Amino acid sequence: MERVVLVTGASGGVGLALCRRLLGEDGRIHLCLACRNAQKAEATRDLVLQEYPAAQVSTVEVDLGNLASVLRAAQELRCRRLLHMLTTAEGVMTQTDRLNGDGLQEVFTTNLFGHFILIRQLESLLCGNEKPSRLIWTSSSNARESAFSLSDYQHAKGQESYSSSKYATDLTSVVLNRKFNKQGLYSSVVCPGLVMSNMTFKILPVFLWVLLMPIMFLIRFFAKTYTLTPYNGAEAHVWLFKQKPEYLDPLVKYHSCTSGLGKNFVEPRKLDVDEETAEKFYQKLLELEGQTLEKYGDLLD
Ligand SMILES: NC(=O)C1=CN([C@@H]2O[C@H](COP(=O)(O)OP(=O)(O)OC[C@H]3O[C@@H](n4cnc5c(N)ncnc54)[C@H](OP(=O)(O)O)[C@@H]3O)[C@@H](O)[C@H]2O)C=CC1
Ligand SMILES: CC(C)CCC[C@@H](C)[C@H]1CC[C@H]2C3=C(CC[C@]12C)[C@@]1(C)CCC(=O)C[C@@H]1CC3
Fold it and tell me: Where are the transmembrane segments (predicted)?
């Protein structure tokens, strides 16, 4: 049976590189590109098919920062009936987090809660299959406990919404394993390292990064997480794709690394999470999910 792999944030950066690399690893997979914009999704599909003309590639439109869009996408995916792996590679990092149309913090929703709802809505496809299914969350080395607080888990009050959302991602993955491993669903978190992408181009302009490139190649001899290209950044995702999920440690983050001479490898590092906090946070996510489903009852089957 073909394996169906859904990649969010597939239109650029690590997500697009991951799509290409997965097809290079296994041309028999069915790749589903999840993008927030239908035109971009089609353009990405064309790009991937140019490289792998025989590949099975479909698209689904989903804005992960918009819960109605997430529920509609889940409905559509449920109709397609199969899903074996979901990997997140979308993300927003901004100094000015704000409320979205659902009245939730944008960074929290896009980086975590939209995916949480998507996964919960796709539970029937992901759980109880003959072979284990898997989730791969793109987290970050920037996930910091100090940025996260249970009382303000959407990070409405602080200035570190990105770090908070990534820490929340790590917590969620730990609990998802506890709840769903028995049903054959396994979750892992990865960090792509420092990658030149639209995200980093918002921190410094492209020309500055280009000027800094020789320095960064030198730094890479000492800092292995300077992966620099999206291709290298997707190393940990691709490595996980090839592992048996039931043998992975749920309390580990898998870091994409690149040596000074450009060789890619994966480094597992223990997650800095308190399991009790993780469980409490998960209960809060369930509460928020309840409110969301009540609000959007018309989008449920
Ligand atoms: N770059 C880096 O150094 C690091 C990145 N990461 C993480 O890696 C992941 C990928 O980042 P990277 O490839 O660098 O970033 P990019 O900005 O290049 O790519 C982000 C992708 O997410 C999509 N996206 C953004 N917002 C939404 C949304 N609301 N709904 C659906 N899709 C959305 C973008 O789509 P569109 O094309 O429409 O904008 C794009 O395809 C992120 O989770 C990021 O946090 C972690 C550590 C370091
Ligand atoms: C090459 C250096 C001489 C100059 C670069 C300095 C900084 C702009 C970068 C150093 C470490 C980077 C980093 C990120 C952004 C850019 C830096 C601060 C991230 C925060 C990007 C998003 C993440 O998820 C984690 C990254 C950690 C490292």
Answer: none
**How many angstroms separate the CA atoms of 44 and 39, rounded?**
9
The SS3 of residue 18 is helix
Please answer whether residues 142 and 166 qualify as being in contact, where contact means their C-beta atoms are separated by less than 8 angstroms. yes
CA atoms within 13 A on the CB side of 251: 6
What is the atom index within ligand 1 of the atom nearest the CA of 15? 13
> Which residue in this structure is represented by tokens 């291709």?
231
Domain ranges (residues) in the chain: 3-299
pLDDT digits (tens, 9 = 90+) for 91-134: 788 778 999 999 999 999 999 999 999 999 999 999 988 899 99
Output the pTM of the full model: 0.96
Phi, psi angles (nearest 5°) of residue 3: -95, 130
Nearest listed ligand to the Cα of residue 112: 1
- How many other CB atoms are there within 10 angstroms of residue 269's CB atom? 11
> From the alpha carbon of 192, which atom of ligand 2 is closest?
24
Amino acid identity of residue 39, one-letter, is Q
pLDDT in tens, 265-298: 999 999 989 999 999 999 999 999 999 999 998 8
Neighbours of 16 (CB within 10 A): 23
- The single-letter code of the amino acid at 299 is L
Of 247, 6, 286, 17, give the one whose Cα is nearest residue 153. Answer: 286
Does residue 210 contact residue 102 with C-beta atoms inside 8 Å? no
Q: Of 163, 188, 156, which is closest to residue 174 (Cα–Cα)?
A: 188
Instruction: With CA atoms as reference, report the closest residue to 83 among 135, 15, 28, 17.
Output: 135
Edge-to-edge strand ranges of the sheet holding 4-8: 56-61, 30-35, 4-8, 85-88, 133-138, 185-191, 252-258, 264-270
- The CATH code belonging to domain 3-299 is 3.40.50.720
